[in-house]
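thread from #wetlab-drylab

HS: before we spend reagent money on co-crystallization trials with zinc ion, can we at least see a predicted complex? here's what I'd submit
DV: go for it
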Amino acid sequence: MSKTVTGGCFCGEVRYEITGDPVLQLLCFCEDCLSITGTDGYAGYMVKSADFRVTSGTPRVHDKISKEGRTVHRNFCGICGSNLWGVTEFGLTSVAAGSLDDPDLFQPSKKVFTSNTPHWARIPDHLDEM
Ligand SMILES: [Zn+2]
Ligand SMILES: [Zn+2]
């Protein structure tokens, strides 16, 4: 049995819980993620959308169609602006690992979109390119 994982935004307005194990953990360096995070990449703790639920607050949602033509529904706190999670078309929810109550739970094994990153991006050598 996996334990329940919880997290939320900086101000505490939006809280969530995850009841299943992550299906994938990765660092994404795509243009969208650089823009969303304001830094060199996005730490995605990806879970099945069915295992994820909001427990308090109502996030704001911004829909973005990626270059590949896929829509991502990006959820963030309307009060403090914290980037929280993105819901993809594949039934997966990519939770921002920094929003987990215990960010050490994030153990990335993959990295994606590592070309075209700014020269100052910190791309870990030990992760497999996806
Ligand atoms: Zn907030
Ligand atoms: Zn990305």
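DV: The pocket of zinc ion (ligand 1) is lined by residues 9-11, 13-14, 77, 79-80, 82 (CB under 6 Å).
HS: ok that's useful, forwarding to the group
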